[in-house]
Specification:
The complex is a heterodimer. Chain A is of the alpha+beta class. Chain A has two domains: about 5-70; about 80-190, Cupredoxins -  blue copper proteins (Immunoglobulin-like). Chain A contains three helices and nine strands, in the order αααβββββββββ. Chain A has helices spanning about 5-35, 50-70, 70-80; strands at about 85-95, 95-100, 105-110, 110-120, 125-130, 135-140, 145-150, 155-160, 180-190. In chain A, α2 crosses α3. In chain B, α2 (about 20-50) packs antiparallel against α3, α2 packs parallel to α4 (about 105-130) and α7 (about 200-210) crosses α10 (about 315-325). The chains are: A alpha+beta, B mainly alpha. At the A-B interface, α1, α2, α3, β5 and β6 of A face α3, α9, α11, α12 and α13 of B.
Chain lengths: ~200, ~550
């Protein structure tokens, strides 16, 4: 099982967590009900203590093993300094304003792109969003550091960017419009095969 | 009894019958719940603003200056003004009660609630009057950004937070001084014995001796398990206070320099290093003292409610030690999206050690459930209901946090409302507060000399409204995060509208639940009793239950 895009991952996560939440709530409710029953109920299952502990350990460790294997950007991110990108996008930010390359930034689907973002004053975030508002990817932008995000787009379309980190109310105008929001900043083209 | 009589005199509450320890406990509890009301109002305002075009509030609330100053004050009032006060009140009563010794100093306990109240009020006023809004994260150099914020606002805010931390240090001193007092049952104990017990080393030695087929190290540990949890959690409370005070001094230096006409270069301070330092301290609250205090509270409540001995007590003691060590090494999960952060720190601290919290909190949940199970059949009392609610809260919130503490998931969840609602609002509103309400119902007869609660129906209404409101708000806004809603962002144009409207409705339920709870409590103690809590106690005793 692998997730080509963050949208697929978030959909899977949404379903899996909903099921988990319903199980937890109903288990505690069932437990509470049986606590109060006059006749002593027999346990349906006996959960051995060490079995339960092993389950928790497996859950904690297995989660990371699963995501490492199922989410392509994890290993890419860890080894990004050894990767030669197909394209580099250099961005600077100061006073809540991006300095971007000519727009739209055109990217070919399936290629490896380095987003290098540098802040000259505050901590910002750099986030790429789909037209429906869902997040493609993001990173924090720490001032005076090299903030580099390696990303491979497996979906075509037009994407917006904004800061994903609060950097003071000056990010907005008096009406509440986000001044760091850049509409149609990125266009990804050339999808084929496994790309969407 | 008529409405007016109840409102003035309560049920059978007599403030004059309370001793000094009971009064100081109740003073902090009263302030805590007043701040809870304030934080609930702030929460509802923010939720209403984010509903966008259907927002019924005046436009001024949607102004970014106003909105983010509320967002800055909200956690200060909620965490310190309300939660810290309630937890400190409970522990300053419980430690003397459980150790059968007097509280070291009632005067100091009074100073604690006054300092925290004053500090919270100052921080709130800094946000309200001057719109100082760097948020609780205080990411450098934002708190020293005098282009966006008025310097005086920053100074008042930092002084307020410093007062809260000084009050916190007062609480810590009082707790340890009480534990190490060699009076009563501890008259013949040495400091070393109390330290070994306080850190749970006796529990660990008992386990080792059991494995080696030897006699237990001690059959009667010097300190009971809830006191051990308080002892352990208070270590993190101390470290956290020092870190926050340190950050406060740094901000103050820059702001005072600015007001004096000296411009200091904010980039002298490395923003990433500062972030690591600050998160190390701040995370000692979220992943340290809260989890340890909660585990200890569950153990106490489970034994009181079930009338049983705690299941696997030695394991629980040893696990609390593990939890303390884990809490010192997990801060990096807040920096998984910071690309300059070393990968090894992300992997070890951010992912692997953080995953241990699933183990430690899962263990606490298991021990609590088994202890309750051994005592069945039980009456579904208010304290049991709230305890089960608290277990649900952490049962949902801890895995939600672990899921996010992963380099793959964090890339799409960091700074979304998933983390603020599915994780920490559910942890705080449902997990922590329901545990605290359970403790409140257990301690109520002891602290108020058996005052009758005005209405059980209102208690039940509060429980259900609060539970549904807390879970509802946490889940719908958690799902909004999965759809891309950011946590520290102003949305006023109807973005994520269905989630935001539902979030506002559930948020309003929490506020209404609080109002019902407050009404029930006031009708129980009466306005006269409420005033009486703040008058000097005739009985100066700083202990409870020793004569029994």
């Amino acid at each position: 099982m692998t997730f080509a895009t963050s949208l697929e991952l978030l959909k899977f996560h949404s379903v899996a967590y909903t099921i988990y939440a319903l199980i937890i709530i109903s288990t505690v409710a069932w437990f509470g009900y049986n606590l109060t029953r006059k006749e002593k109920v027999k346990s349906i299952v006996r959960i051995p203590f060490y079995g339960y502990m092993a389950f928790l350990v497996a859950g904690g460790v297995g989660h990371h093993i699963f995501t490492y294997n199922a989410i392509p950007w994890v290993s890419e991110d860890i080894t990004r300094h050894n990767v030669k990108p197909d394209q580099e996008v250099n961005i600077t930010v100061a006073n809540h304003k991006w300095q971007l390359p000519p727009l739209p930034i055109k990217i070919k689907a399936g290629t490896k792109v380095f987003f290098n973002v540098e802040s000259n004053d505050l901590i910002y975030g750099f986030g790429i969003f789909r037209k429906d508002g869902s997040m493609v990817t993001q990173m924090q932008v720490d001032p005076k550091y090299k903030n580099d995000l390696l990303w491979t787009f497996h979906e075509c379309g037009t994407f917006d960017i904004t800061s994903t980190e609060y950097s003071g109310p000056a990010q907005y105008n008096e009406k509440g419009d986000d001044l760091m929001f850049v509409k149609d900043a990125i266009v990804v083209e050339g999808c084929k095969g496994g790309d969407k | 009894m008529s409405f007016t009589k109840n409102l003035i005199h309560g049920t059978n509450f007599d403030a004059d019958s309370l001793n000094a320890l009971q009064k100081v406990t109740l003073r902090a509890v009263v302030m805590s719940f007043l701040f809870f009301g304030l934080v609930a109002i702030e929460g509802v305002i923010m939720r209403m603003v984010k509903t966008g075009p259907v927002n019924p509030l005046p436009k001024m609330f949607s102004h970014p200056d106003h909105f983010f100053s509320i967002m800055t004050a909200h956690p200060i009032v909620g965490i310190f003004g309300s939660t810290y006060q309630l937890v400190f009140a409970a522990f300053m009563f419980l430690v003397p009660y459980l150790t059968k010794k007097p509280l070291y100093s009632v005067k100091l306990a009074n100073a604690v609630w006054i300092l925290i109240t004053l500090g919270t009020a100052l921080a709130w006023f800094a946000a309200f009057l001057w719109h100082y809004a760097p948020l609780y994260t205080l990411y450098w150099p934002l708190p020293a950004d005098t282009k966006q914020f008025e310097t005086i606002g920053g100074i008042v805010f930092v002084v307020g937070v410093a007062l809260i931390m000084i009050g916190t240090l007062g609480f810590i001193y009082n707790i340890y001084a009480t534990i190490f007092q060699r009076v009563g049952v501890h008259a013949n104990k040495t400091t070393k014995e109390l330290l070994i017990s306080g850190f749970g080393i006796d529990g660990m030695l008992n386990l080792i001796n059991k494995l080696r087929g030897k006699e237990p190290y001690t059959k009667e540990p010097a300190l009971s398990l809830p006191v051990v949890a308080i002892f352990r959690g208070t270590v993190d409370t101390f470290l956290d206070a020092i870190v926050i005070l340190g950050a406060g001094v740094l901000i103050l230096v820059y702001l005072i320099a600015d007001i004096s006409g000296v411009k200091l270069d904010v980039h002298t301070i490395d923003a990433l290093l500062y972030k690591n330092y600050f998160w190390w301290g701040l995370d000692l609250v979220a992943d340290g003292l809260v989890l340890i205090y909660v585990a200890g509270s569950w153990y106490l409540l489970a034994t009181i409610i079930s009338g049983q001995k705690l299941f696997m007590e030695n394991v629980a003691r040893a696990a609390l030690m593990l939890e303390l060590l884990v809490s010192w090494m997990v801060w990096s999960h807040h920096l998984l999206s910071d690309q300059p952060q070393p990968e090894m720190m992300k992997l070890v601290s951010g992912e692997m050690v953080t995953a241990f919290e699933l183990l430690t909190q899962g263990l606490a949940l298991f021990i609590t459930l088994v202890t309750l199970w051994k005592g069945r059949p039980l009456k579904m009392s208010m304290e049991l209901k709230y305890l089960l609610g608290g277990l649900i809260g952490f049962g949902l919130a801890v895995p939600a946090g672990i899921i996010q503490a992963d380099m793959g998931m964090n890339r799409v969840l960091h700074n979304t409302s998933w983390i603020s609602f599915a994780h920490f609002h559910i942890a705080l509103i449902v997990g922590l507060y329901m545990t605290l309400y359970s403790a409140l119902y257990v301690l109520w007869p002891l602290v108020t000399n058996n005052t009758k609660i005005y209405s059980k129906k209102l208690s039940n209404t509060h429980f259900w409204m609060y539970l549904i409101g807390g879970l509802g708000m946490g889940s719908v806004l958690g799902y909004a995060g999965l759809e891309g809603a950011l946590r520290r962002h102003l949305y006023v144009h109807g973005e994520f509208e269905p989630y935001m409207i539902l979030g506002a409705i559930f948020g309003a339920m929490i506020f209404i639940a609080w109002a019902i709870f407050l009404y029930n409590i006031i009708m129980s103690i009466g306005l006269k009793g409420l005033v009486g809590i703040f008058t000097p106690a005739k009985d100066k005793s700083a202990s409870y239950g020793i004569e029994d």
